[in-house]
Each structure stands twice: as C-alpha cells, then as structure tokens.
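Hi all, a correction to my earlier message: I attached the wrong file for Mlr7554 protein. Here's the right sequence:
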Amino acid sequence: MPATVRTLSISRSTSAFAIASVGPIALFLIALILTVQARGVPDNDYWTIFTSMAGSLDGLPTLSDLYVRGNEHIIAGAKLFYLLNFHLTGGDNVGLSVIVVAFSLVIALTLSCAFSLFARSRLEALVIGIAVSLFVFSPLAAHNFFLGMSGIAWIGANLFTVLAALAFWRSAEEDRPMGYVVAIVLAAIASQFYSTGLTALCAIGIQGFCADKTRRLGILLFAVGLAYVILIAVFQKVPEYHAARNFDPTEIALFCLTFIGGGIVTTEANAIPLGAIGIGAAVLIVGFCLFRPGESRYRAAFWIAIMAYAVMSSGLAAIGRGNMGGDQAALSSRYATLPALFWIGLFGAAACLIWRVDFNRRLSIAIFALAVALLVMNGTPRVMDALARAEGKDFATLELSLGVKDPDLMQYVTSTGFQYYAVEDDLRKAKHVPFNGRDFGCPALGAQVAVSDKPVSLTGYIDIVSQTQDPRWARVFGWAADQLGEHPPLLNNGLLSTYRCIAFLDGNGTVVGLGLGGFHRADVAKALGRTRDDYGWSGYIDLQRLNSAPRRIYAVLLTSSGWTRLPEPEIGFQF
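and the right structure:
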C-alpha cells in the first residue's frame, strides 16, 4: 500500500476523530432527552410480534420463535433486543428507544470518524461530525426513535451494514483477509433485523468490485447476496392485508427518486427532482472513482457501498410498498434513515475526489451543511408531532395498568387496538409493561386517603366527566394551577416532562379513580396569563366503586402538605 494512503488514514487520526466525535455524542444526548419522553407501553406491530416472544420471556428463545415473521419480514435480530429490553425494563418503550439511540451513536461515530479523514482543520472536523450526526439522528426519522420497536429493526439493519462496509474497507486497505470474513458475518447479521438488511451483502459486493484487488471477491459476494434476496422474495408470503407487489418500472423509478429525496425534504414535488439530482451525482462520482486510479479507492468504495445499500433498499421498498400509498409512501418517517445514509455516502464519495483542493473541499462541506439545515427545518415538525404523542404515553400506561378499555387510549399505543387487547392477558402474566408495577406516585384504587386541611394556593376544576365505551369507566378532564408559582403543581420533572398523579375520591375519602397531569390547556394559560399551558390533567374513575346516581367525586393531588383537595366543591354526574 502506498505510504501516502497509510499516512492519510493514520496520521492526525486521533485529534480529528476526537473532534469529529463531538457531534455524535452531542446528538446522542439530545436524542436521549427527547426519546425518553416516549416511555411506557410500546407501539404498533410490537403487540403482534409479542405473541411469538411470549414463550421466551422466562428463558432462551427458540429458533422457531425468533423466525416467526413480522408481517413478511425476518426480524430475528430485532426480537433478541426486544427480549433483552423486557429483561432490563419490563418491556418499556423507553428501553427500546434507548437501544435505537445507542445504535445510531455507533453509526454516527463510525461515519463521522471516516469522514474526518478529509478534514484539514479542527473546524472542518467539527462541522463534519455535526452534519453527519444530524443525518444519522435525522429528525425526519422521528418515527424510528420514538417508536423503538420500529427503530431497532430498521436502524439495527443500518448499523450492521455500516459496520460490514467498514470491516471490508479496513481489510482491503490493511491486507487482513480475516476482515472480509468479519464483513460477511456482519452483513448476514444485518439481514436478520429487517428486509432492508437483505441488501447488505450486495452492498459490500459492490464495495469489493470498486477496487482491482477485491473485484473477484466483490462479484462473488454480490452474486451470493442477490441470490439470497431472490430466494427470500420467492418464499416470502405477502400478508393478505397488504397490497400486491409492484413491478412497474416507471412507478418503481419514481418511488426510488422520492425515497432518496425524502432524506432531506418532505413533499413529493421537491423529493423527486432532488432524488434525481442525488442519483445523477452518485452515478458521476462512482464513474470517476472506478475509472480514476488513486490512493482513495478503498475509502471511496466504502462510501459507494453506503449509497448502494440505500438505493437497493429503496428498490425493495418500491416493490413491496409501492402499491400502498404510491410515491407518497416513500416519504414515510420510518424510511428516512436510509436516504440519510445515501446523502452521507454521496458527500463522502465526493470528498474522496476533491479533498486535496481547499476551495472544493470547503465548498462541499458548505453544501453538506446546507443540506443538513434543510433536513432540520423539514424534520422539526415530525419531532414535535412525535413529542406530542409521547406526552400521552405515561397516561396510557397508568390507565391500561388499571384495566381501562377505551379506544381513546389507543392513540398513544396503536392504531389497531385489538392487537394490544389480544395479548393483554399474556402481558399481565409476564408483568410486562404496563403491568410491571411502575410507580406513578398514585394511591391504590379503593384506598382511604387522608386529605390535608391546611390552606394552599391551589386553584383548578374538574371540567368534564364523560362516558366511555366501557360501561365500567368514565373519563375525567380538568386542570390545576398554583396561584403563587409558574410551574404546574402536577409537574414532576420539567426536563423529562414527567407529571404527578391526581386521584379522584368519593365523599368518604375512598380512591375511585386516577389520572396524570401534563395535558395542554391553552384556555387555562390564557386565563392565568402564563406562557406554558400544561396545566391540564386527565384520568378515569371506576364507576363500580361509586354509589348509584347521582354520583359525586372530588380531586386531590400531592403537595408539600400531603394530599390536597382542589378548592372546588364535589362534582356530580347522573350516568
């Protein structure tokens, strides 16, 4: 290997890597703070997947349990992490999200450090690390970070693909044949997380093809990887509730362009031309890298593999989901980490060609930073939507642990409530969230509560008591504020957005219902003349614990004086 290559790869690496690592670590901490708010019951397909995991909760999983597919996907690797999370957190969604954030940290560190080889100053290394990390922790991909079960599958496949490409690169550059074996094993692991990982072996095959020394191995790996994809596709059973596969070449092409452009923008009109520009630039850069001999051949091949993985995954998505929402489906939040990898790979491959010329290098970094700015601007609304949904997670966890059955709760859990209720008995037996005894600071239903008679500055009301579809439970809404303080009295931790319990008592001081604070009430904020609006609370009362109509309740919350009653009188209702 030429001395210049080894010098570029090794000299200055320690300081450059350290500076480039600032971005990944900072984004990791921010992502942790945000996603920890999605604590509580997991989401969506987790409940159907749980059926195949129930028999493995008290021991080692069997292969038959691991290879029961999620929809049509092999997710054996993801299931192992679901089981790990059950043993660590009782199955809490926050554990799943933390795993996803940890996966993303490894990806961001790997790509930032690889990219930092092109930096000629500390500032360049810092900007590169931040830019790469914002793509990896893409706000457009909020779905995968807040719905941890999804992120473990998608980002787990991304992680092992990136590590496979890294192992292949280091093996080629340092003449370590065993590294190729490691790369193949990592690519095989990627294929066990989700269907996108099926293309990992093909990706490192393309990587091998880019250099003379590894070209034969690359062709072999690509052929084996393609045969594996075809084999899985032939024996893969498309669920009856999914549309048939789409093989229309025009529709596939438009889907792929939208998919790639969707790594930065959120509208089809902008994504298609942006995707076309990205694919066109990639073709030109790959051509230069293949036909231009130089010391950066192995590094360029690494970035080409990252791009190839994303593009091939877009093709699989186009075939499998093109008939389920059309090109607009390509902009789904759950896909966004894949086109993000494409754009990182594109800028990485471009840097291999221009890194020696200061102006060109700085210009490419500036364009990369501009793309990141667009990404953040377009992705922030998705994060805000995810945070808004996450605010109800604790509430749903508390109420489901009581046995409340109300479709309104499912907006925080799954769009198909029957999937959760189908496994609720198994969750209860295994003490899986929401039945793991999480302490919200609430008294037990039926307990007697001593109410303080000390004067306090509380104000608030029970606004509504309404019926639910379950005749046993009624929903209660209201608000509470402290006339002497800006913070809501039910706020427990402002950074993590945790809230205290509110209890509902009958005339005898018996707890007949429970709820949590944290609901937004703009009308209350306006009336109080305050900027924050999280003074609302919501809960449920067990009608079986109340006498026949007219029923009467009042609300109490925990203060420094003990359980304290809201100043309003009891409220009555007739149903």
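Sorry for the mix-up. The beta strands are 458-467, 473-482, 491-493, 498-499, 501-505, 511-519, 536-542, 551-559, 562-565, 571-573.
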